[in-house]
Amino acid sequence: MKAGERERMMNLLKAALPRVEEDEPARDLWPAVLKRMDAPAVTVPWFDWALLAGLVGLVAVAPASIPVLLYYL
Known about the structure:
single chain, mainly alpha
């Protein structure tokens, strides 16, 4: 590799990859962590439970439907 090509490659790499700073983050992340921990948990709607119960019932009544259900996943 010639010196000119090497300089060009170094400039391209420096332009493509931003410099990693070793400083602290721009803001404190701990308050965001505490806020997320205090947030209410995600709840599953009743309709999802009804669909799951229907699927389990279908598999219990007609086990031959399992390959069909797996095909459509």
